Amino acid sequence: MADVQFLFREGEEAVSAPTVALSAFAEDTNATAVVIQPGEDARALIPHLDRLSLVEVTFPAFTDGRGFSSARILREAGYTGELRASGDIGVDMLSHLHRCGFDAIAPNAPLDLAQAETALKVWPQVYQATVVDGRKPIWALRHGL
Amino acid sequence: MYLYDHYDQAMVDARVAKFRDQTRRRIEGTLSEEKFRPLRLQNGLYLQLHAYMLRVAVPYGTLSGAQMKMLGDIADKYDRGYGHFTTRQNIQYNWIKLEDTPDILADLASVEMHAIQTSGNCIRNISADQYAGATADELIDPRPYAELLRQWSSFHPEFLALPRKFKICVIASDTDRAAMRLHDIGIQIVKNEAGEIGAAFYVGGGMGRTPFIAPLVKAFVPLDELITYSEACLRVYNRYGRRDNKYKARIKILVHELGVEEYSRQVEEEFAHLQTLAIEPPLAELERIKTFFADPAYEADLSDDLDLSNPAFAAWVKNNTAAHKTPGYAIVNISLKPIKVLADGTKEAGIPGDATGEQIRVMADLAKTYSFDELRVTHTQNIVLPHVRKADLFTVWEKLVAADLAEANLDKITDIIACPGLDYCTLANARSIPVAQKIAERMADKAEEIGELKLKISGCINACGHHHAGHIGILGVDRKGLENYQLLLGGCEGADTSLGKIIGPGFDEDGIVGAVEKATQVYLANKEGEERFLDTYRRIGMNPFKEAIYG
């Protein structure tokens, strides 16, 4: 498993608890960390959010965007633990991952740090309220909301 | 016309800077073609047979004179002196150099334009009725809703790696001029029984290899829930659309496989959840956008009288202008399907949708002087001047004649939609452009007698040339290494949307031209009263055509 290269959790370290697959999670009542694959339903975790410290969402291929929805769904449900994106992650996905609620990134191949910094700052503002990224969308700024 | 504020401009400028950086990394070699591909695609840059192709977005098909002029200048500066208007109301340039694209995008950004999401597996440029704001038959101008959706869909972080591309269309007239029900989401702005304005959502239409007419998924979405409901539709698709087979990845397959009731149920569930999250812009934002689409300062009490003593002008007025909601004004259609008659009488048809840099600038000037500085691009690959005083029509026509832009063939058999085909496209199996030209040349003298006949040609099963929706459709296929053309009859993209049916075995290039001609002869022989080709076909069915063509 790849290491966490970017962590956006103030004052914390990446969670090191061993992860279990979603299918094993319900039975394993001691598990605090889980991995979900693109085809799995993130909502299955909603009853268990209080015992989770890490959810790892995999991106086996960067062209498969299901993990973006999984992340937002978990954050919308109130999950506050580490939300880690792992897999085939390129530098140009970083800001989108962050906007969908990921706060830890573990790319298969480490990314160039300078490029990553540029990529994370690319959008001065944003058009949508994803809610989970804490950013005010442009329409809110326009109308002083 | 919508004008950017500093937020919109900053977003587009940021995109240009980002793409400049990505292009630099690609040219340096630190970004592989595999990784660059989806990035350039989301910026409208394709690698085609001979060169890069850049597709520029024309949101809901609306342009100012200055924007149109820039499109002409780009054609001259970076391409080979022409551009190609597309069935998505966009323009594409076929001979682009990778290293030039950041500069082209910067030029576009200087006139509030971009190539954002004109390709790739994301929400594409939003299309709309080309007569929006000008026609009397609409409930309300649909473009403010399209602009609201444009902003929402631009760089939406959750929906940039969808199973497949996603096309949204917005109309507000029962006369559907934008093929609304052949989109992934077709939105019709409607009024409910209480007199409130809202949106009917049709989801899961599309052409391609498996065409579907979109079913109604929700009859009335209030205007202050448009974005929330759209987001619910997209989230269900992003999570459950098929990713195992790219030919089954469009939302039409998901809706078809789940059934419209089950898809609607899932969307409702997601919608109910998203309604709790305050992701909807306030109605004040819609009102702000609407102010940009207020009527221009029409002159009052203009006369509707026209001097039609010049027969060529009269023919053009009859075929290429449409009724405007304001007395004394007309909607002008500029055909980009010219047919030149040479000195020896032979005919030479142009490439459907192509215009030279100079022609594009002529149209830009006409818009500035005679149409409140506004133009539209139509999905039939023509251009519209939406608000022309009838008193100016003759002058406008004369200037169009001088620029070879006055072909009076709107919606006639020579007003052909054709994809770029094997002349340009890596996906194509057969050429489309030469077939379109040959048909136009053969049928030019009969076009007026035949009347309305929408002919559409695709060079492969992906159906970019809308062949399923043609009264006559032509599909180019590869048959044992040879180009072969199938003939379809009975498609229609209007309010009475229907899908064409293949008539029988395919033809070679000359054979398909002959088959089209025979089909028109069957129509003329069987036509009753004011019937169009499509009406006659629907009444008499396929058999008489089959007998004439294969008999």
Relevant terms:
heterodimer; A: 145 residues; alpha/beta; Rossmann fold; 6-stranded mixed β-sheet; 5 helices; B: 551 residues; alpha+beta; Sulfite Reductase Hemoprotein, domain 2; Sulfite Reductase Hemoprotein, domain 1; 4 domains; 5-stranded antiparallel β-sheet; 36% helix
What does this structure look like?
The complex is a heterodimer of chains A (145) and B (551). By secondary structure, chain A is an alpha/beta fold. Chain A has a single domain (6-142), classed as Rossmann fold (3-Layer(aba) Sandwich). Chain A is built from 5 helices and 6 strands, in the order ββαββαβαβαα. Chain A has helices at residues 22-25, 66-76, 94-99, 113-120, 138-142; strands at 6-7, 20-21, 33-36, 54-59, 82-87, 104-107. Chain A has a 6-stranded mixed β-sheet. In chain A, helix 1 (22-25) links the parallel strand 2 and strand 3. Chain B is α+β, with helices and mostly antiparallel strands and 551 residues long. Chain B folds into 4 domains: 6-109, Sulfite Reductase Hemoprotein, domain 2, CATH 3.90.480; 142-289, Sulfite Reductase Hemoprotein, domain 1; 311-402, Sulfite Reductase Hemoprotein, domain 2, CATH 3.90.480.20; 417-550, Sulfite Reductase Hemoprotein, domain 1. In chain B, 36% of the residues lie in helices and 18% in strands. Chain B is built from 17 helices and 22 strands. Chain B has a 5-stranded antiparallel β-sheet with strand order 1-2-5-4-15. A 5-stranded antiparallel β-sheet of chain B has the order 3-16-17-12-11. Chain B has a 5-stranded mixed β-sheet with strand order 6-7-8-9-10. The radius of gyration of chain B is 23 Å and the shape is globular. The chains are: A alpha/beta (145), B alpha+beta (551).
List the helices and strands and how they pair.
The complex is a heterodimer of chains A (145) and B (551).
Chain A: E1 6-7, E2 20-21, H1 22-25, E3 33-36, E4 54-59, H2 66-76, E5 82-87, H3 94-99, E6 104-107, H4 113-120, H5 138-142
Parallel strand pairs in A: 2-3, 3-4, 4-5, 5-6
Antiparallel strand pairs in A: 1-6
Chain B: H1 6-28, H2 33-41, E1 45-47, E2 52-56, E3 62-64, H3 65-78, E4 82-85, E5 91-96, H4 101-109, E6 127-128, H5 143-153, E7 168-171, E8 185-191, E9 197-203, E10 216-222, H6 226-240, H7 251-258, H8 260-274, H9 283-291, H10 311-320, E11 321-323, E12 329-334, E13 339-341, E14 347-349, E15 354-356, H11 357-370, E16 374-377, E17 383-389, H12 393-402, E18 417-418, H13 433-443, H14 447-450, E19 455-458, E20 472-479, E21 482-489, E22 501-502, H15 509-526, H16 533-540, H17 543-550
Parallel strand pairs in B: 6-7, 7-8, 18-19, 19-20
Antiparallel strand pairs in B: 1-2, 2-5, 3-16, 4-5, 4-15, 8-9, 9-10, 11-12, 12-17, 13-14, 16-17, 20-21, 21-22
